[in-house]
Design a protein that fits this description.
The chain is built from ten helices and eight strands. By secondary structure, it is of the alpha/beta class. The longest helix has 15 residues. Bound molecules: zinc ion. Zinc ion binds next to loops.
Length: about 240
C-alpha cells in the first residue's frame, strides 16, 4: 500500500508522542510580575518541550489580523478606545488552545490576569475537558524588579539593549555597537515600574493563592541566574 498523506500524519503523530514522553501533555500557566524574566523563560520552555508559548498580546493581534469572530469584537473595543472585554479575551484564548500545535500542551504567558478571568477560563476549559497541569510562579522581589527594569537603556539607532549594572556599554550613554545615543524607555522609569507592580500585586498576584488552593501551584525563585532558573523549571516540569 502506498503511503498516503493520512497515514504519514498518523506516523508523525506517533513519533511525536514517543518523543514527547509517551504523549503526555504539558499545559501550563506561567505567572510572574513584569521584569521577572517570565517571557524569556517561557520562550525557552516552549522550545525545550515543543509546545507553543501563548501570550495574550500576540494572539489578540493575530485574531484581529485574521478577522476571526472574536478578533472583530476585539478590534471594535480597541477602535473605541475601550479595554477588550474578558469574554473576548477568553474566547480568543480558547480558540487558540484547541489548535493542532497545542496537541501536546501550551504555555500561557500573561493570562489569566485576574481572578475573574481565571474563574471563567476554568469553566470554559472544564467544558472542553482541557485541564491545566501546572501553574508556575516566578518569585521576584519588588526591589529586584525595579533594579532590573530601571537600569535598562536602549540604543536609538540599532536598538541594542544595555543594562547599567548587568550589561553596561563600554562608554556611558553611547552604544558600543554603533556609537548611537542610549536612552531610557519611559516604561522603565521608576515611578512607572512601581505603578505597574502595584497593579500586578492588586489584580494578578491573588491568582497565586487561587491556584495554590487547587493544588496546581509551583513557586520558583526568580532571583537566580537565567540558566539556573531554566534548569529548575525544567526539573519541575519533568517531575510532574
Ligand atoms: Zn547602537
Amino acid at each position: 500500500m502506498p503511503i498516503n498523506k493520512a497515514s504519514l500524519l498518523v506516523l508523525e503523530s506517533f513519533v511525536r508522542q514517543r518523543e514527547g514522553k509517551g504523549g503526555r501533555k504539558l499545559r501550563l500557566i506561567f505567572l510572574g510580575p513584569p521584569g521577572s524574566g517570565k517571557g524569556t523563560q517561557a520562550s525557552r520552555l516552549s522550545q525545550r518541550f515543543g509546545i507553543p508559548q501563548i501570550s495574550t498580546g500576540d494572539i489578540l493581534r493575530e485574531a484581529v489580523a485574521n478577522k476571526t469572530e472574536m478578533g472583530i469584537k476585539a478590534k471594535e473595543s480597541m477602535d473605541n478606545g475601550e479595554l477588550v472585554s474578558d469574554d473576548v479575551i477568553i474566547g480568543i484564548i480558547c480558540d487558540r488552545i484547541v489548535q493542532t500545535d497545542c496537541e501536546n500542551g501550551f504555555i500561557l504567558d500573561g493570562f489569566p490576569r485576574t481572578i475573574v478571568q481565571a474563574e471563567s477560563f476554568d469553566k470554559m476549559i472544564g467544558e472542553k475537558n482541557i485541564p491545566i497541569d501546572i501553574v508556575l510562579s516566578l518569585d521576584v522581589s519588588e526591589e529586584m524588579v525595579v533594579r532590573r527594569l530601571c537600569g535598562r537603556t536602549v540604543c536609538k539607532e540599532c536598538k541594542t539593549n544595555y543594562h547599567l549594572e548587568f550589561n553596561p556599554p563600554k562608554k556611558k550613554g553611547v552604544c558600543s555597537n554603533c556609537g548611537g545615543k542610549l536612552y531610557h524607555r519611559p516604561d522603565d522609569e521608576e515611578d512607572v515600574v512601581r505603578r505597574r507592580l502595584k497593579i500586578y500585586k492588586e489584580t494578578t498576584e491573588p491568582l497565586i493563592g487561587y491556584y495554590q488552593q487547587k493544588g496546581l501551584l509551583s513557586v520558583i525563585d526568580g532571583t537566580n541566574e537565567i540558566e539556573n532558573i531554566f534548569k529548575q523549571l525544567v526539573g519541575v516540569l519533568e517531575g510532574i
